[in-house]
Amino acid sequence: MARVEAMVVDITTLDVDAIVNAANSGLRGGGGVDGAIHRAAGPELLAACLALGGCPAGEVRLTPGYRLPARFVIHAVGPIWRGGDHGEAEILASCYRSSLEVARAHGFRSIAFPAISTGLYGYPLAPATTIAVKTVRRILTDDPDALDRVVFACFSEDTLRIYQFALNGQKAAQIRVPHVR
């Protein structure tokens, strides 16, 4: 079974087979982790993304990592939070599931995820974290040899605490964390 861990780290510095980018549907780079990944990977990443012609929410696309330590970038387009009654949970789970399917299909042994949709897209952190951890664990339970390492790259100590609660099977909803935009 893969080692699943959460840590405060700049995802662009991780030496893993693939990092997941919390991308926008145009795959054009942007703010937050998406912008950081594009800046670190160099202009070749944007050119590769533009050639893909976009990506709908809940789906993923794969590109090389270019100047990143990670060999590949899996671009996942998460849902924009609209209150939770518009299929957001299913779309978010699909981002994690689809990312892991791509990783398995390409023989990747390690992957790192950001907190998809929790920045500019406004998804509340605690429920998003629960979805991320449950989805990843379900896939790793079904296929324990799929990966060696899964990292949840957290942007703050507060985010790390939420992931640690979720990884330990505790409810993270009671923890108060300021919403970061």
The overall average pLDDT, rounded, is 94
Number of strands: 6
* Biggest sheet: strand arrangement: 1-6-5-2-4-3
Number of domains: 1
State the share of residues found in helices, binned by percent. Answer: 25-40%
Which term fits the overall shape?
Answer: globular
H-E string: EEHHEEHEHEH
CATH topology tier name: Leucine Aminopeptidase, subunit E, domain 1
Total helix count? 5
Q: Identify low-pLDDT runs.
A: 173-181
Measured between the Cα atoms of the first and last residue, the distance is: 34 Å
CATH architecture: 3-Layer(aba) Sandwich
Secondary-structure content class: alpha/beta
Radius of gyration: 15 Å
Description:
Helices cover 37% and strands 18% of the residues. It has 181 residues and is of the alpha/beta class. It has a single domain, classed as 3-Layer(aba) Sandwich (Leucine Aminopeptidase, subunit E, domain 1). It has a six-stranded mixed sheet, with helices on both faces. A hairpin with a 7-residue loop joins β3 and β4.
